[in-house]
Design goal:
Largest sheet: 5 strands, antiparallel
Helix content: 10-25%
Radius of gyration: 16 Å
Strand content: 35-45%
Shape: globular
Oligomer: single chain
């Protein structure tokens, strides 16, 4: 949360540095569910330069408009991961619909999460994912897709990141 781009994103959302300090202080006080991730490697979002993406949930897409509910993270092809950890940090309390997928090179995917998340303000919510196994070894996905949004969460702010776990 203390990366320069996260600060710029929070500022552009009207939260400023005071909002960042509040998020950081309150997040450290919370006991988040633990998702073990030995030797975590932050994955980069598609087209991004910082592994943490700050988002404000948009309205649903219509015929000519799109929503911003999806965020894709690139899994490096030259590395192997035993699992993945999606980190959702909710700035605003509320009900969020979340779906998460591991996407594979053969145009298939595995949905590993599809639930409504009810959170309090400044709550960390980690989710674990495990790649397919074939003949005793992991089949690596090329992307992790995180979709967060519904009409009840429009305008709410969250931060998403994904770690590859070795």
């Amino acid at each position: 949360m203390n990366r320069p781009l996260a600060i710029a994103a929070l500022t552009s959302l009207g939260l400023g540095l005071a909002g960042l300090q509040t998020i950081t202080a309150q997040a450290q006080d919370r006991t988040a569910p633990q998702v073990e991730c030995r030797r975590a490697v932050p994955l980069m979002p598609v087209g991004g330069t910082d592994p943490e993406v700050v988002k404000r949930v948009s309205a649903p897409g219509l015929l000519l408009t799109r929503n911003n509910w999806n965020t894709d993270f690139v899994v490096p092809s030259n590395q192997s991961f035993a699992s993945f950890r999606v980190n959702l940090f909710f700035k605003d309390s509320g009900n969020y619909q979340a779906e998460m997928f591991l996407k594979y090179g053969n145009n298939s995917n595995d949905r590993f999460y599809d639930e409504r998340i009810v959170t309090e303000e400044n709550e960390l919510f980690p989710v674990a994912a495990y790649p397919r196994r074939q003949q005793g070894r992991n089949i690596q996905p090329f992307q992790v897709n995180v979709k967060v949004g519904n009409t009840g969460s429009i305008g709410k702010v969250y931060v998403v990141s994904v770690d590859g776990c070795r």
